[in-house]
Design goal:
By secondary structure, this protein is an all-beta fold. Strands 1-2-3-7-6-5-4 form a 7-stranded mixed sheet, with no helix packed on it. Strands 8-9-10 form a 3-stranded antiparallel sheet, with no helix packed on it. β6 and β7 form a beta hairpin.
């Protein structure tokens, strides 16, 4: 949910992501993964984080990727800014620390990655 408590961000088992208007339940925006998954069994969105100050949505998926989306414009589709593909298996969780602008991810491959939002490293 965003800081103003007006948008709810949801992801599903088919890899689709949406922002929903809390008041009326209407779909506000969709976010596309972009590339097609080789294995449709791994399209699930496992974790999401919305950083309202920068209007950025971070989403982890069972396909092993973490994606960053721009939610700043009023278009019906959020644009993908970056894909981190370091995990070899499903990404189960992500967390973000605004103060340090660091994102941490963990996955089924037993690895934990920490990357800086500004440099994507």
């Amino acid at each position: 949910m965003d800081e103003r408590k007006r948008k709810l961000f949801v992801g599903d088992s088919r890899g689709r992501m949406f922002s929903i208007n809390i008041k009326n339940g209407a779909k506000m925006k969709k976010f596309k993964k972009g590339e097609k998954s080789k294995n449709k069994d791994k399209d699930d969105i496992s974790s999401m984080y919305y950083w309202g100050d920068q209007t950025v949505l971070l989403a982890a998926s069972w396909d092993g990727n973490v994606r960053l989306y721009d939610d700043s414009d009023s278009l019906e589709e959020g644009s993908k800014k970056y894909t981190m593909d370091k995990h070899k298996d499903a990404v189960n969780f992500l967390d973000f620390k605004k103060k340090d602008q660091l994102c941490a991810t963990s996955g089924d491959d037993g690895l934990i990655f920490i990357f800086n939002y500004n440099s994507y490293r």
